[in-house]
Design brief:
Structural class: mainly beta
Radius of gyration: 34 Å
Strand content: over 45%
Order of helices and strands: EEEEEEEEEEEEEEEEEEEEEEEE
Number of helices: 0
Number of strands: 24
Largest sheet: 5 strands, antiparallel
């Protein structure tokens, strides 16, 4: 605040319930117009900490002949951190082809809160017009972020595990944090030894099937396959689509049709 007196000498005090607030600068005397800045830790009197809720603080000014005036301000003491609930991760393995979708609900009784998402100690870049920081304007609201395994400059994150930290801070500076570990995988599966038993064959002749075989593997273990023509899976034995949990050889007997019977 800024104050002055026509006779130059004036004094001020900041009190709660008739007791001086704790801290240097809660009261003083000045001889000219000055701006006063007071940093307060929420204590008063002999060091009693104000409880949760709204409180009235009184600023009193007086001059050397006893003239005085007072102004009141209401503040809210908030020592309770907001809560982060309903945290959802779309998957725990992330790539540019399979971005990570993060959603959660922020709850703060006093109203507005701000969220921040850090991944691997870095600011992540978002996609689909989502951002790693933002405001939840009400006492309860949701946040959504899509991460394509890149930073804000578009540089990819290194392969391996990364710690995702979601923090929520209220207007009083109280912070809640939740963490989750995800893995970045930018290495495609490995395909080798692709072979076809008969480059030309008739499903109505002999043999009536064509054997398609290959070896597949992935650096993280699990991989999927799909055998198709023009995007339509083929018909045969076993299925032309599937999932394997380890490196292996796939042998597919194709009957010359797709799964639509054509």
């Amino acid at each position: 605040f800024t104050a002055k007196d026509n006779a130059d000498v004036w004094a001020y005090s900041l009190t709660y319930n008739g007791q001086l607030l704790s801290g240097a600068g809660a009261s003083g005397t000045r001889t000219t117009q000055q701006e006063i800045s007071f940093k307060w830790d929420g204590r008063y009197g002999t060091g009693t900490l104000l409880g949760q809720g709204q409180h009235e603080i009184v600023l009193t000014l007086c001059d050397s002949v006893g003239n005085s005036m007072s102004e009141k301000v209401f503040i809210t003491i908030d020592n309770t951190a907001p809560s982060i609930e309903d945290v959802m991760f779309s998957n725990d393995i992330v790539s540019s082809a399979q971005p990570l979708e993060i959603s959660f609900t922020g709850i703060e009784a006093t109203g507005q809160s701000m969220y921040n998402i850090i991944i691997g100690g870095r600011v992540p870049g978002g996609t689909l017009s989502t951002h790693p920081t933002g405001i939840i304007p009400a006492a309860q609201g949701s946040a959504y972020f899509v991460w394509p395994a890149k930073d804000t400059s578009g540089a990819p994150f290194a392969e391996g595990e990364h710690l995702v930290e979601i923090s929520l801070m209220d207007m009083a500076g109280n912070v809640s944090t939740v963490t989750r570990t995800v893995r970045v995988d930018g290495t495609p599966p490995r395909l080798s030894n692709l072979a076809i038993s008969a480059p030309y064959f008739s499903p109505y002749g002999s043999p009536s099937t064509n054997i398609i075989s290959f070896n597949g593997s992935d650096n993280l273990g699990t991989w999927t396959y799909k055998i198709s023509i023009n995007g339509i899976p083929l018909d045969g034995t076993p299925s032309s689509t599937g999932l394997l949990a380890s490196p292996g050889t796939m042998s597919f007997a194709w009957n010359g049709k797709n799964i639509q019977g054509s």
